[in-house]
Structure formats: C-alpha cells, structure tokens
TrEMBL record:
PANTHER family: MEMBRANE PROTEIN, MEMBRANE PROTEIN-RELATED
Lineage: Bacteria, Bacillati, Actinomycetota, Actinomycetes, Micrococcales
Domain DUF3817 as annotated: residue spans: 18-124
Ranges that cross the membrane: 20-44, 65-88, 100-119
UniProt protein name: DUF3817 domain-containing protein
Length: 151
C-alpha cells in the first residue's frame, strides 16, 4: 500500500504547491535566459554588460566586460533559484509522500529547458485534483455518518 498524505497536512500541501508553482516558473524563466546567454556567449562571442562603455545595457565581445557582467549574474541567480526550486520540490514531495523517483523527475525541471513549465502544470493539476477528491470523500463520509447518527 502506497503512503498517502495526511488530511491534517492538506493546508500545508496547498501552500507547498503554490510555492512550487512560483519557484518553478522563476527557475524556468531563468534557465531560458541562461540558455540564451550561453548561446550568445559561446555561439556569437558576446557577453551582456550593464553600465559600461556600450551604454546602459549592451553586448560586448567576450572577456572584454569592464562594468557589471550580466552574463555571470544570470548564471548566479539561476543557481540560487534552483536551490529554492529544489527546496520547493522537496517540500511538495515529502508532504505528498511520493516515491523518490518523482523527486528526481521534478528536480530535472530546473536543469532541462522548458521542462519545469510542463512539470509544474502536470503536478500542480494532479495535487489539486487529489486534494479535491480527498476532501469530497471526507465530506461524503461526514454526511453519511451524520445521517446514520440522526436515525
């Protein structure tokens, strides 16, 4: 028999799925920005610079950045948000009592471009449907028990 979430954890699961959704979208967007940055840097030989001689925001040849290197900034920010994404993944995974393989699949969403968007939609929908079904079952059980008690 598979483990199931406890009814007392349902409010925490709702918070966890919301946190997962937000972190998933942010991590996915940053991963796409990182992929674009890597393509521009290694494919075309330019880096993104903030506040340098090229203006407020400009592309400069690789390794010639004199101001703030946004290419490195995107890399760092994505790395930290991936840590937040993993925490959100762990929180949702542990509250839902899923198998470890599902944790790994969700974790891949932060390193495979576009995957986080698909996983976020699928798992959020799955969790919300599960909670709705369990709450409907609980409401039906309470109604039946109160009807039996009234007789």
């Amino acid at each position: 028999m598979a483990l199931e979430p406890k009814p007392r954890d349902f409010p925490r699961i709702r918070g966890a799925v919301t946190f997962y959704q937000v972190s998933s979208i942010i991590t996915g967007v940053l991963l796409l920005a990182l992929c674009a940055e890597v393509l521009i840097k290694y494919g075309f030989g330019y880096e993104l610079e903030l506040g340098g001689p090229a203006g407020f925001l400009g592309f400069v040849p690789r390794d010639t950045v004199t101001a703030v290197n946004l290419s490195t900034g995107i890399l760092i920010v994505h790395g930290w948000f991936y840590v937040v994404y993993l925490f959100a993944d762990f929180r949702l995974w542990s509250l839902m009592r899923w198998p470890f393989s599902r944790f790994i699949v969700i974790a891949l969403g932060g390193v495979v471009p576009l995957l986080s968007f698909f996983l976020e939609a699928r798992f959020s929908r799955e969790v919300r449907a599960y909670l709705a079904a369990r709450e409907a079952d609980a409401a039906t059980t309470v109604t039946v028990e109160s009807a039996e008690a009234a007789q």
